[in-house]
Write a structure and sequence with these properties.
The structure holds 2 protein chains of 2 kinds. By secondary structure, chain A is an alpha+beta fold. Chain A has 4 domains: about 90 residues, Uridine Diphospho-n-acetylenolpyruvylglucosamine Reductase, domain 2, CATH 3.30.43; about 120 residues, Uridine Diphospho-n-acetylenolpyruvylglucosamine Reductase, domain 3, CATH 3.30.465; about 110 residues, Alpha-Beta Plaits (2-Layer Sandwich), CATH 3.30.70; about 150 residues, Alpha-Beta Plaits (2-Layer Sandwich). Chain A contains 17 helices and 19 strands. The radius of gyration of chain A is 23 Å and the shape is globular. Chain B is of the alpha+beta class. Chain B contains 11 helices and 17 strands. In chain B, the strands form 5 sheets. Chain B has a 5-stranded antiparallel sheet with strand order 3-4-8-6-7. A 4-stranded antiparallel sheet of chain B has the order 11-12-10-13, sandwiched between helices. Chain B has a 4-stranded antiparallel sheet with strand order 15-16-14-17. In chain B, a hairpin with a 4-residue loop joins strand 15 and strand 16. The longest helix of chain B has 14 residues. Classes of the chains: A alpha+beta, B alpha+beta. At the A-B interface, strand 9, helix 7, helix 8, helix 10 and helix 16 of A face strand 7, helix 6, strand 9, helix 7 and helix 8 of B.
Chain lengths: ~500, ~350
Amino acid sequence: MSQSQKPDKMALATMFRAFLAPEYVICDEETQKPFECDGLSVYCDMPLLVVLPGTVEQVQEVMRICHRYEIPVVARGAGTGLCAGAMPNPDGVLLVLSRFKHILEIDPLARSARLQPGVRNLAISEAASHYGLYYGPDPSSQIACSIGGNVAENSGGVHCLKYGLTVHNLLKVEMVTVEGEIITLGSEGLDNNGIDLMALITGSEGLLGVITEVTVKLLPTPSIAQVIMAAFDSVQAAGDAVGGVIAKGIIPAGLEMMDSPAIIAAEAFAHAGYPTDAQALLLCELDGSEAEVIEQIAQVEQLFIDFGATATRVSQSEAERALLWKGRKSAFPAVGRISPDYYCMDGTIPRSQLAFVLTEMQKLSDHYGLKVANVFHAGDGNLHPLILFDANVAGELERTEEFGSKILELCVKVGGCITGEHGVGVEKIRQMAVQFNDEELTQFHAIKHAFDPNGLLNPGKGIPILKRCQEYRSLDAIKNDARQGEPA
Amino acid sequence: MNDISAQLIEQVKQAANDNTALQIIGGGSKDFMGRTPTGTPISIKAHSGIISYEPVELVLTARAGTPLSQIKEALSEHQQMMAFEPPLFDGNATLGGTLACHLSGAARAWSGSIRDHVLGIRLINGKGEHLRFGGQVMKNVAGYDVSRMQAGAMGTLGIISEVSLKIMPKPAASLTVAQDMDAAQAIETMNRLSGQAVPLTGACWLNNTLYLRLAGAKSAVETTAREWQGSALDHGDAFWEALGDQRLDFFASDAPLWRFSVKSSAAHVMPNENWLIDWGGAQRWLKGDFNKAELEAIAENMGGQVSLYRGGNRDSEVFHTQPEALKLIHQRLKHAFDPNAIFNPGRLYSWM
């Protein structure tokens, strides 16, 4: 189908309205406005049309029409993503799946839940709680984010080290292809024959298909969970203590670290009782049977003291546990209170490199004149530096973005990666050239081609085109050369 | 302890140039799996050795030809393990082969499979390019998950040359409880107990006996065992090792062996046949001559799939039939990695 036969906006809307109620095909700018960005609002654009189908058949029909006329499609769930992966395409359709909010089935004996893609992450655990079960991955947006988006981004959370990411907690995914065909990946069994397409789809950022149903595994709710808070007078000591816990053979349910700026901001916001003079704070949650938790809490507390903790506190009630977590979970908004804007990064590093990375980051912070607070999923090496800036100051956003990209390059340099759980989307597409070489990126494009030969699904996201990479790498080389010439 | 990747790449480029098929061989311990192998053998075995192991980081990286027994030994020194408990097959199983064949042991239903523990790989594709995907960190969502995609692909997408794995601590204590019961009762019991917050890491039924393994903190194991019926089994660990390694008497037979991967709570079928039920009901082994199409219908009814694991007619299809749409995607992906179709042609399916 040639370009000239492509329907214009209103003609396309008419086609969609043949099977969708008029209010679910949004053409006007004012109603489209809330859809212009996801959780990363520095990137926004307006789509050609927003459509909100209510049935899988309608999704298929939307896809068939878009395929026929070669119109780009961007799928969107709750829009809480943090990499602009759901940013609309100006020439394309924004396919919003928020009407698919039904929990289709919970099987308590088999410990699984069959869900429409728009079901909120937290709603799964709420529904499963009647059976003493819950859904493992708990991204910090869990109150709002939806399971379809979780699959598209392979979302994590604070309990990943013990309970895994989204990819570890899936049984089956139903997907509509770019041609509008339904395929089922995985099964209700654990292992499946052939290429593991479900693993491939998980984290593929809407580039390979549109997820229309998800079957997840449910886990038994631990009888008890307790959290230990420990303060340290250096990041290095806290990092060593984390290593000590692992070396002891204990896998905590959650193991989080904050640096001094993050502690101060979080305490001012949540009044959790964090010692604000500490250089680093650890929160370590242990869960399981009562006997096990009592045994391990004692071990971990002693271990923290041995590693030089200046203060420790063990939660003695559910309320106290919730309070200790509240500071950590509200760290982002807490930082938001002390700075007009903040920019959240998402690199991963080998834990042993933490002290080095934080020292280097401080140098960058001085260089760019921008403060940074660090929140760290210490158990699994996922670092969230929050760069504080003011978008109203000319040039500060640009400086922030450059600072951010330097942080990601630092993560790659020490053996980590550019994104642990937020995804690439638009935001980190340039840094993909740092993590992958041209041959690897070409292999990614070949995978994409196998699902979407015309490149209609979420174009311009996830995998960069090679020409841009070469530009980025050479630009960077020029900058580095220039910097080496600067006086120290 | 050798890096022979340069030589492997050369062989791949030559084969791509000549359009000759390559049969990828590690330790040869899983020659019996998949369809009948064809092509010129290319041995990965010498591409061996642990490249890095950081116990505190819970990460190990090794070349694909490294025997799992060697890895297991290195991990044991630090009280750590591969939590997916792969079969070692007399010490011949290699890391690369285990990922390609996607084999796990008794703990799979609770701790995950090798696919769940892979953090990154290096892969030689059909163009002879040596590519790196994933990494050595627990979380990594940059690019498509090419690493996990290799699990079960039977080497059809390329030569896995290196694998980074997530490592876990060994449980402090373990205990096995055995009770007599029939299969239907065992399936119900396994599933019910799996829904409780107890340190269950193995649940297997054979010969009218249900075996349950508890492993974790000592206090938790002992408390749970006291609450449960059944008698503690002496040498429990040896039972689970023999099960995972497929050394139990059940596996010692020339009869075709079928592997069902189904919904864990699916009702027992064909009760007069010879079954072994593992993974808390999610993996069921069946011995004997059967019609594959009939078994596939049964497996689908049980929410899963079936494959001919060992023996039988390996010139016909052995893995569960793919629907037409998925077959097409498989073929396109095969082409994306291996445009000249040189790697293990026909080993997974006759059509790729």
